[in-house]
Amino acid sequence: MLDRAFLRNEPDKVRTAASNKGEPCLIDEWLELDKNRRSLLSDIEALRRRRNELSKEVSSLKKEGKEADEQILESRETGARLGSIEKELDTVDTRMSQLELYFPNIPDPDVPIGNDETFNSIIETRGEKPSFGFVPRAHWDILGDLLDKEASGSITGSNFILLRGWAARLQRILINWMMDFHSSSGMEEIWMPFIANRESMTSTGQIPKLEDDMYHIEKDDLFLVPTGEVPLTNIYRDSILQEKDLPVRLFGYSPCFRREAGSYGKDTRGLNRVHQFEKVEMVRMVKPENSEAALAEMTGHVGRMLELLNLPYRISLLATGDLSFAAAKCYDLEVWAAGQEKWLEVSSVSNFRDFQSRRSSIRYRPAGGGKPLHVHTLNGSGLALPRIMAALIENGQTESGKIILPNVLAEIVGIKTLS
Questions:
Q1: For the purposes of burial, counting CB atoms within 10 Å of the CB of 23, is it exposed (0-12), middle (13-18) or buried (19 or more)?
Q2: Lower CB density within 10 Å: C or N end of the chain?
Q3: Which residues neighbour 37 within 8 Å (Cβ) at sequence distance 6 or greater?
């Protein structure tokens, strides 16, 4: 959520940001409501002042034994007018608050301007793509019956997955390894709910903007979490932290559920795009002056994970049209999948500045005193399955169909190859 003072004083920046992100922008309606609101507040203040004056006049006249019928009548009329204007103000405030939920965050100045992913800027590429003495296969061909689409389709429907045998074991091992890696870096581990209420989803910016992409439990007005970012961030909703408590560094595992309305038929083979996937998420809350450094540190942290997994990767700075509604800046980390000969996104590391903390009212009290300030929030996938699975399988494949594991996983499994 953007600060009202910013909306009032910088409407052109709001219009530009919305245009660059491909979002509608009702800033003109908001500005008109804001003007009306300030006029109503002025009227309310004047009426309250007049009502107080009349109350004193009535009291004074009665003490003197004089009639006060005229003042009493005016006081009643003033009270009625005041009540009517206060109701009008409530209506204006409600509509302004509704509109504010639809204004996207302002992209940072160094974010490339462009309406889709083709405008993203590749910052860095690391690692060597694997070479083979044979034509590498895609992971769905290697997995075969271990990716049991018939069973998952029968149980749930299309674009859900069911893994068997060593594939299921590999996914479990990967999740445990990711959790241990984050824990060893000093982050606090969280085991979180996998369902969130409407207020939590609104606080982090998933709704109302993305409500159609969410899985909604109508009876209880609850949502299956689309990302661990939602419960992790909302731990501190409506909280005032102390400066000494910052930075907050959290991580946790969750399944993630997304309808992804409109994406049907787009890159849906195998493990590439599914409606339920597993992810270990990182969330940071920091002082505003530290958020850019936190973004770089989190991106580097994910890069180290990919290097340990022996996966070639590249880092892209997302353009405005590919940037999420709530993010001010985002780096995507993509790994090379040899069988498909394409880059697969496995992590997005985003800086939201104070956009989420305003929606969720997360602040901190400076050590030197003064009014509480909004924290900056960041999050990042560390990492998202199952595309990591897809890349490991395709890059580690042998001609005989076995999978060579990176050393960090081989040490856990106790064997170097899976088959």
A1: middle
A2: C
A3: 89, 92, 93, 96
pTM, two decimals, is: 0.91
d(CA 36, CA 30): 10
- DSSP, residue by residue, 199-237: HHHHHTT-TTTTGGGS-EETTTTEEE-SSTHHHHHHTTT
Q: Report the candidate in 329, 104, 374, 378 with the shortest Cα–Cα distance to residue 237.
A: 374
For 273, the token pair is 């795009």
Backbone angles phi, psi at 166, to 5 degrees: -65, -25
Question: In angstroms, rounded to a whole number, what is the distance separating the alpha carbons of residues 124 and 110?
Answer: 16
Q: Are residues 270 and 140 in contact, defined by beta-carbon separation less than 8 angstroms?
A: yes
Per-residue buried b or exposed e for 300-310, using 16+ beta carbons within 10 Å of the residue's own CB: ebbbebbeebb
* pLDDT, tens only, 250-268: 999 999 999 875 444 556 7
Could you give the CA distance from residue 76 to residue 87 in angstroms, rounded to a whole number? 17
Q: 336: which 2 tokens?
A: 């090379």
- For 178-212, the pLDDT digits (tens) are 999 999 999 999 999 999 999 999 999 999 999 99
Contact present, 299 and 378 (Cβ < 8 Å): no
Cβ–Cβ < 8 Å for 232, 281: yes
**pLDDT tens, residue by residue, 2-14:** 999 999 999 999 9
* Percentage of residues in the chain having pLDDT higher than 70: 98
pLDDT at 156 exceeding the cut of 70: yes
What is the model's pLDDT at position 267? 66
